[in-house]
């Protein structure tokens, strides 16, 4: 006897119930994430105080993290080295702020602390056709990370690419300088998530890198980077003494290169 197939109504109801199950899963996962944030809050605060006692902690973490460098211009590392402190504070799982404290550079860059607020909210997916958008379900809504522009004082060396300083943004030269400025670390502070192609590229991914990876695991990255730097110094000492070991050169040639301090 062949297998009895459910009729179309039963199949449709099954899909609806599956969708309801997924909503329950999402709600539980959000509750778990909120519970973790609540439990970790005091630990992060204690750790922030200890990190502040370690010289160049964030300089080492940020300059040696392989993904961080992919988001900003190479010249930005002059000012990344000025970052004295990075903090993340959560209002809830969907809203948080990133606080970055910069030291200054004489006659170029002013010391300042900048706070950028973020939130996740549902927006209409404008990539769908009108027919799809007219449906009664909520499938045309996407959860997206957005922010608001925040004031930051740009370095004097970046004055020619600072958006406020560009008089003619429509000329070829003005457009070029504007794009350069918006691709810099300082352009990220103007990112909103609402102007694709006209602001810092992948600003949401950059924020999530800080919130989900760099800040929670900063001690691990510092330890790894510090160990690597010590190994490099040991290698340099060996080379200065005339010793040369090429046994691992072939196996390591494809490893990502980190910025040297």
From TrEMBL:
Residues 230-253 have a biased composition (Acidic residues). Gene3D superfamilies: Nucleosome assembly protein. It holds the Pfam family NAP. Residues 228-261 are annotated as: Disordered. InterPro entries: NAP-like_sf, NAP_family. Belongs to the nucleosome assembly protein (NAP) family. This is Vacuolar protein sorting-associated protein 75. It comes from Vanderwaltozyma polyspora (strain ATCC 22028 / DSM 70294 / BCRC 21397 / CBS 2163 / NBRC 10782 / NRRL Y-8283 / UCD 57-17) (Kluyveromyces polysporus).
